[in-house]
Fold this sequence. Notes:
This protein is of the alpha/beta class and 327 residues long. The chain has ten helices and eleven strands. The chain has helices at residues 55-68, 73-81, 92-97, 124-137, 175-183, 199-205, 225-243, 263-270, 273-282, 301-318, and strands at residues 6-9, 13-14, 20-21, 25-27, 29-31, 42-48, 82-87, 144-153, 162-165, 188-191, 211-218. α1 packs across α7 (225-243), α5 packs across α7 (225-243) and α9 packs antiparallel against α10 (301-318). The longest helix has 19 residues, at 225-243. The radius of gyration is 21 Å and the shape is globular. The two termini are 30 Å apart. Residues 288-299 and 314-327 have low confidence and may be disordered.
Amino acid sequence: GNANGVVGQSPGGVDDLGRVVTPKDIYGYRITDPAVSSDGKTKIVITTGMHAAETAGRWAYQGLVDWLVSDDPRAAELRGLTEFYSYPTMNPDGVFAGNSRATVQNPNQDPNGLWNPGLWQPHADIKVNGEAMLADVLEDDDPVLAFIDFHSTWPTPPGDDFGFIEVDQGDNLSPFWLEFRRLQPNVGEIDSTSTGWISANFGDLLLGADVDITFETHLGLPRLQDYYLELGKNFGVAFYNVLSPDPFTSGDLDFDGDVDVSDILEIQRTGTVADGVDWESNFGTVDPQSGGSQVGVVPEPAALGSSLAGLLGFVFRRGIGYTRRYA
């Protein structure tokens, strides 16, 4: 791509209402710590926007990116360990035209079945994205841990957010995926049995990803926008928890090696309700590898519950965990 992250342009065209859709920029960018050598870094590929109307999937992608580039010390460490190859505009013409799933160039064909060089030549949106990924991700031999394509869907078993994931290859047993589901227990999984050239199979067969997931956010549930942002953040935290040689203790929001009252200030400043729950669960614990030492006395359960109730009240009043915005 160029200095603005543009890897190419969409073809444009005329939509079903007769409106001219001019070519749009297609973007790709890498999230990493450039001060740390790229040799040996773990690669992760994230994509979204292929199906134009699946907005909630794009918000989950946004939540992951927001966290990856934040000043959270976990994100900073993860940037030194990984390279996130990120492609947010898979179908910009379709989004602009208000399509449901298709591109403007090919309004009667699902683009998620064209992810092979032999198929994408007459489909410029997919071709630009696919060729960029092949050039970017395969420029060296460092391993690709995961390929995640963020989508949205209507009610489907298991009835909530879920990942299409290859069970026969053991992808559902990946430490990253297991950790993500621990952090996000409402998320289910469905065995991915597709043999066509969907994006996930492209990630598996042509990019060599160990784990390939088509992640589906649930469009049928009335959820606030912040839910999807937090969902995306938890993808990043899961990668951190399994890749960091010395992960922080959950609830240790100031990262001083113990979970104590000082972490409340960090939760008030940047935290969410989930962080408050982690703080309650691990209050009084010390990370033996960090050299942290617990100061003070661990409160009795009743007192701890009161502290958490007060903390959550603060969080809700400040709108840290949730806002009035809707997806």
